[in-house]
Design brief:
It is built from 9 helices and no strands. It is mostly helical. It starts with 12 loop residues before the first helix and ends in a 9-residue tail after the last helix.
């Protein structure tokens, strides 16, 4: 079952479509990472400007819904996902803030929320301060060299929850568009292993763990 209709946000689609690149994947604790080579892409001025706009920090708005049923569906989703995340984040307010931000950034980029949660599980196992052997950081394992593209080179920003999630979602949206909607190939680009099955298969498997189930 696909996630329920999301909150209403006013966001710029154009701001989401910028070519970033993710860092090396960190899978479940104790498991090896299936990582490929990462390429630092040159950015023309217009893309650099869009990038800066796309990742600018701003607290996500309070969710608004067009009707009561949409709001109830969102709350049911939040409660169900909160229970599944409890072993990794014991504090409810922390889980709520994280899930709301994942929801917002996924919807902002036009991505399936369960896909993004599955990718986060594969990349960092929900560890905010995860760092790969190559130096990729945070929930969605973004490489620090992209902070130089923003102008100040502050890689510490990648440990900020919303900044990291926004980078990651914008990255995946860009690669999905480049691959004409082919999610398998887009995930390969995200990981730097385009055309190889291990990483996409791992994300798809973990995605199923975060899909909503029909109400009985």
């Amino acid at each position: 079952m696909t996630p329920p209709p999301g909150p209403t946000y006013t966001v710029s689609r154009r701001a989401c479509l910028v070519p970033l690149v993710a860092g090396l994947g960190l899978f479940a604790v104790g498991e090896p990472a299936w990582a490929g080579g990462q390429i630092e892409e040159p950015l023309i001025d217009s893309v650099r400007s869009a990038l800066s706009s796309a990742v600018r920090n701003a607290a996500p708005p309070i969710p608004e819904f067009s009707n009561t049923e949409s709001r109830l569906q969102y709350l049911r989703w939040l409660g169900a996902m909160g229970e599944r995340l409890k072993k990794r984040k014991s504090d409810w307010e922390t889980r709520k803030e994280f899930l709301q931000t994942v929801w917002y950034e996924s919807k902002r980029a036009g991505l399936d929320v369960s896909l993004v949660l599955g990718l986060i599980q594969v990349e960092s196992n929900f560890r905010k301060f995860a760092v790969s052997v190559a130096g990729a950081r945070g929930y969605m394992q973004v490489m620090p060299f992209w902070t130089r593209a923003l102008g100040d080179g502050d890689a510490g920003k990648l440990f900020h929850m919303q900044t990291n999630l926004r980078f990651g979602c914008v990255i995946l949206r860009h690669y999905l568009d480049r691959e004409n909607g082919d999610l398998f190939m887009a995930l390969g680009r995200y990981n730097g292993s385009r055309g190889k099955p291990q990483y996409p298969d791992a994300v798809f498997a973990n995605k199923r763990l975060w899909e909503s189930v029909p109400a009985k």
